[in-house]
């Protein structure tokens, strides 16, 4: 999806309606081509949209994890094995140590049908006393309603791809969010780890 001509076409259309930021809300599109693929995608989006700031879920994830000073992370993902490997390689190359990783082995349209209960169970299963926080990959996993409860339960940050993407877009558009109920990330300062 990240290399589709539709990516630029859609970004160009968004640029014409005077938006402040464009973001690609698919985590895999940012990491699937390896470290640096996310920055290249951001550059293409920004150029097509007339130079406005652009990001994607993979870049937002790196910036979110850095903003919370997380170094040792556990990953809860819905992906099939080979996609999971590419995700861990991307995050490793971005400077994070992967402590544990567990996936659900799901692909395609089924990604959007994961219940909040299943997502919470996966986060608890992958958590480790040795990790600084848990990352929930894929913007298709609903997680916002359970992040606060999971953070309280685990005693550490829980960052989801969807949450990070929203947080990054707000920062790039000049909004400094400090919102209760969406996890520690929404109260943290912004750290730009290399977005273009």
Task: Write out key terms for the chains shown.
single chain; 196 residues; four-stranded parallel beta sheet
Structure in words:
By secondary structure, this protein is an alpha/beta fold. The strands form two sheets. It has a four-stranded parallel sheet, with helices on both faces. Strands 1-2 form a two-stranded parallel sheet. Helix 1 crosses helix 3 and helix 4 crosses helix 8. The chain starts with a helix and ends in a 24-residue tail after the last helix. The model has no long low-confidence stretch (mean pLDDT 89).
How would you spell out the order of helices and strands? HEHHEHEHEHEHEH
Strand order of the largest sheet: 4-3-5-6
Helix percentage range? 40-55%
Q: How many strands, which pairing sense, and closed or not: the largest β-sheet?
A: 4 strands, parallel
Shape: globular
**SS class:** alpha/beta
Taking all residues together, what is the mean pLDDT?
Answer: 89
Distance between the first and last residues' Cα: 20 Å
Our count of helices gives 8
Strand content: 5-15%
Rg from Cα: 16 Å
The residue ranges in which pLDDT falls below 50 over 5 or more consecutive positions are none
What's the β-strand tally?
Answer: 6
